[in-house]
Specification:
The chain is an alpha+beta fold. The chain has three helices and two strands; from the N terminus they run H-E-E-H-H.
Length: 91
């Protein structure tokens, strides 16, 4: 089912991609056991072009240097041991 925002995104994407010259998006339809379409796979190069056209590229995100926080957390137990103990409570 396509909603209004999906329609807008598709129209916007077509407009952005036309400015680069129309390019065919290579895709593969993924189906379930009953052969009903459930997803679409596209080539990574096509995804990069689409992400750039929509402004979703990682380079648009601000870089945050977290090295200043290294070693600041005083955790009394080993992280892996804590994870194992918590997961054993699930059983």
């Amino acid at each position: 089912m396509m909603v209004a925002s999906d329609t807008f995104d598709i129209i916007y994407l077509r407009t952005q991609l036309r400015s680069e010259a129309m390019h065919e998006v290579r895709k593969k339809i993924v189906t379930d056991e009953a052969m009903r379409p459930v997803a679409v796979q596209i080539d990574y190069e096509d995804w990069i072009r689409i992400a750039r056209a929509l402004g979703l590229e990682r380079s648009n995100l601000p870089f945050t240097d977290l090295s200043a926080h290294s070693g600041r957390l005083d955790w009394p137990v080993d992280g892996l041991e804590y994870q194992r103990s918590v997961r054993s409570e699930w059983r």
